């Protein structure tokens, strides 16, 4: 993230003024996919790619914002009817409105921002943008909002101003991220715990399939429904304590096998196993056992591909190449139907794996994947 670039653009657009500089990261999720709406655990970490914004109070009741990457400038007021048309500006406007709804007093400001989180690769560029502005405005106006509320402000911005009904994980990781640590977040209680992630001798590599299949939103809703159906069947079968699939065991699921469809059973099987895999990975990391971490990643991919059926040909192909090249762990990251695989690769295998992945993938699909090397880094912060 290039601070000097942001500072020079800010200076150019806002007449040599100097403001404060803030940053927030994108994120990866090592394991724990489709567990959030089942009351389970997710296991994200902040990465060394994100958003940087320079901000200065301008003495008016207007926000003047410049997106350096899009070369686009927008002005808007701070009342509900002032919502800007540009979708990127709605993230900033939404954060301002959510702070105001919570009683925070803010004034107009000038800002220029840029990011190096790849758009559409599942690393959550929008959460990085929301967290940057939530953190910055809280700091600049001394609002005293705690970190959890900052994450919720980002989430509410998505819900109320950007039309995305997301969970809390992306914003949470962006605000709470810590260098050298992943965070296990309990999506039901919102309790969290840091676990060491210092894979000496390994690299964390994302391979972007550069495809996005259109199924995603309808398929997501269908799978969510399957999970709720299975949880209700278990609950009604003498297990009143089962609120979400997170509370269920495979034995409980087997008891209701004849009462639910084969498809609902498969979906529930994946989720129950995935909740356990997150806990297994946490245990492995505390022992520094990255081989087990990798094995669990492959198990997750298999479950997402064969039981939850949210993978696609391109992602399965990248996963197969990883296996063939001896990569320690590989899986589809995110909701599925496109996006990236996340790979835990031994240093000595790294170059050969990337070379093979690029050549084989291009031969099969006619274009190369994109490569992102990521390092686990700190969350939202003031830079200058």
General description of the model:
By secondary structure, the protein is of the alpha+beta class. It has two domains: 3-198 and 378-382, Ribosomal Protein S5, domain 2; 202-374, GHMP kinase, C-terminal domain (Alpha-Beta Plaits, 2-Layer Sandwich), CATH 3.30.70.890. 43% of the residues lie in helices and 23% in strands. It is built from eleven helices and 13 strands. It has helices spanning 3-13, 87-101, 125-140, 147-161, 169-176, 216-235, 250-255, 262-286, 290-307, 313-324, 347-365, and strands at 20-29, 41-42, 44-57, 62-67, 72-77, 109-115, 181-186, 192-196, 202-212, 329-333, 338-346, 370-374, 381-382. It has a six-stranded mixed β-sheet with strand order 5-4-6-3-1-13, with helices on both faces. A hairpin with a 4-residue loop joins strand 4 and strand 5. It is globular, with a radius of gyration of 22 Å. It starts with a helix and ends with a strand. The mean pLDDT is 95.
């Amino acid at each position: 993230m290039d601070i000097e670039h942001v500072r020079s653009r800010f200076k150019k657009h806002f007449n040599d003024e100097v403001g404060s500089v803030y940053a927030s990261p994108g994120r990866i999720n090592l394991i724990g996919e489709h567990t959030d709406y089942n009351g389970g655990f997710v296991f994200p970490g902040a990465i060394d790619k994100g958003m940087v914004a320079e901000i200065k109070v301008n003495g008016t009741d207007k926000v003047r914002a410049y997106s350096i990457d899009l070369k686009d400038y927008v002005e808007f007021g701070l009342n509900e009817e002032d919502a800007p048309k540009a979708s990127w500006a709605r993230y900033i406007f939404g954060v301002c409105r959510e702070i105001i709804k919570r009683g925070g007093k803010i004034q107009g400001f000038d800002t220029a921002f840029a990011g190096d989180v790849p758009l559409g690769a599942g690393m959550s560029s929008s959460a990085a943008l929301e967290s940057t502005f939530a953190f910055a405005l809280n700091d600049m106006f001394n609002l005293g909002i705690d970190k959890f509320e900052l994450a919720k402000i980002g989430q509410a911005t998505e819900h109320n101003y950007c039309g995305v009904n997301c969970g809390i994980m992306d914003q949470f990781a962006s605000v709470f991220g810590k260098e050298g640590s992943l965070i296990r977040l309990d999506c039901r209680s919102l309790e969290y715990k840091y676990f060491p992630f210092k894979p000496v001798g390994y690299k964390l590599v994302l391979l972007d399939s550069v495809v996005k299949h259109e199924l995603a939103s309808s398929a997501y809703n269908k799978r969510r429904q399957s999970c709720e159906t299975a949880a209700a069947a278990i609950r009604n079968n003498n297990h009143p304590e089962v609120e979400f699939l997170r509370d269920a065991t495979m034995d409980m699921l087997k008891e209701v096998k004849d009462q639910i469809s084969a498809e609902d059973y498969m979906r529930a099987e994946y989720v129950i196993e995935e909740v356990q895999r997150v806990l297994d990975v946490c245990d492995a990391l505390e022992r520094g056992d990255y081989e087990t971490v990798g094995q669990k990643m492959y198990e997750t991919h298999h479950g997402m591909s064969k039981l939850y059926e949210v993978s696609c040909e391109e992602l399965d192909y990248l996963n197969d190449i990883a296996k063939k090249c001896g990569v320690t762990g590989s899986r589809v990251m995110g909701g599925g139907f496109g996006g990236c695989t996340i790979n835990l690769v031994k240093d000595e295998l790294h170059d050969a794996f990337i070379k093979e992945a690029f050549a084989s993938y291009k031969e099969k699909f006619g274009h190369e994947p994109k490569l992102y090397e990521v390092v686990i880094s700190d969350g939202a912060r003031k830079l200058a």
